[in-house]
């Protein structure tokens, strides 16, 4: 009887509706951002949208400013203090009012339909869910061949940390608990250019599962990639090596729950 009751309680709790803060890092996304915000506003579960702009040479900041002024309770605009995508993401996460965060790239290359599926998955365990573009439909021109190979390479490299089959670790769409950000040391925040690896590592260090779901990947129709493919790739390799050492240390000395 006790067992049945426990099951029912945990099942009920896990289906809880979690309010989400959507953090959007944006650099030179003037041509995407309004349309994206309009779409995100259709998702009831997202009750806060934080756009963190930095480094733009186009009018992204002013475009967002005009939108945010009309709905100050829901839409916030931040000017990034440092540089790089992860720096922007961390700033937005720290300001977020909710305990649950979704990162959504400003170029809208992952659809609302697929993102809603990720949110639904997140509602079932409140741990960590990310998009997996590698087995989804990739629109012609959306991912350069070298990026595709690189994304598979990192999927395999990160498989021992995540478990299961290799999945795309670099998809921008990630949903997670705000509290994991506290587990990311400052040196890692400075080193990791995009933040995907730090967020996954911090989640695994806590002993939480990292889930993924297939998403389709569309090409951007405005501007250019803000990511430096070759130097960024090398940096990601360095960050991966350091995270392996860091997680190894955690397992040996801090005695956190073993990585699944
Ligand atoms: N605030 C801020 N946002 C950034 C910075 N670099 C990238 N971003 C944003 O981070 C997200 C991912 O960058 P993208 O340029 O789309 O990189 P990508 O997805 O690898 O490249 P594409 O396939 O061409 O879209 C986008 O929303 C960018 O606007 C930055 O330095 N500051
Ligand atoms: Mg992109």
Keywords:
260 residues, alpha/beta, 10 helices, 45% helix, disordered N terminus, binds magnesium ion
What is the CATH third-level topology name? Spore Coat Polysaccharide Biosynthesis Protein SpsA, Chain A
What binds here, in terms of ligands, is: guanosine-5'-triphosphate, magnesium ion
Order of helices and strands: HEHEHEHEHEHHEHHEH
Distance linking N and C termini: 30 Å
CATH homologous superfamily name?
Answer: Spore Coat Polysaccharide Biosynthesis Protein SpsA, Chain A
Side-by-side strand order of the widest sheet: 3-2-1-4-6-5-7
Oligomer: single chain
* Tally of discrete structural domains: 1
Cα gyration radius (Å): 18 Å
Query: How many helical elements?
Result: 10
Supply the CATH class. Answer: Alpha Beta
State the share of residues found in helices, binned by percent: 40-55%
Shape: globular
User: What is the percentage of strand-forming residues?
Assistant: 5-15%
- Which class do the helix and strand fractions yield? alpha/beta
Output mean pLDDT. Answer: 90
Low-pLDDT residue intervals, each spanning 5 or more residues = 1-14
The overall strand count is: 7
């Amino acid at each position: 009887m006790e067992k049945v009751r426990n099951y029912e309680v945990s099942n009920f709790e896990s289906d809880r509706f979690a309010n989400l803060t959507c953090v959007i890092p944006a650099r030179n996304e003037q041509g995407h951002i309004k349309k994206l915000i309009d779409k995100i506003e259709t998702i009831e579960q997202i009750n806060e949208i934080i756009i963190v702009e930095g480094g733009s040479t186009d009018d992204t900041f002013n475009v967002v400013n005009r939108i945010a002024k009309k709905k100050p309770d829901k839409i916030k605009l931040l000017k990034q203090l440092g540089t790089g995508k992860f720096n922007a993401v961390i700033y937005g996460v720290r300001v977020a009012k909710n305990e649950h965060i979704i990162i959504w790239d400003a170029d809208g290359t992952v659809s609302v339909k697929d993102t809603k599926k990720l949110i639904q998955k997140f509602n079932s365990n409140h741990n960590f869910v990310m998009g997996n573009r590698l087995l989804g439909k990739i629109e012609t021109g959306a991912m350069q061949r070298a990026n595709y190979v690189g994304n598979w390479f990192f999927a395999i490299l990160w498989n021992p940390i995540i478990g299961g089959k290799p999945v795309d670790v670099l998809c921008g769409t990630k949903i997670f608990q705000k509290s994991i950000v506290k587990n990311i040391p400052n040196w890692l925040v400075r080193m990791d250019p995009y933040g995907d690896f730090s967020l996954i590592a911090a989640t695994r260090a806590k002993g939480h599962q990292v889930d993924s779901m297939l998403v389709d990947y569309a090409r951007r129709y405005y501007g250019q990639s803000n990511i430096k493919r070759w130097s960024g790739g090398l940096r990601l390799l360095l960050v991966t090596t350091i995270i392996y050492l860091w997680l190894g240390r955690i397992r040996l000395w801090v005695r956190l729950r073993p990585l699944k």
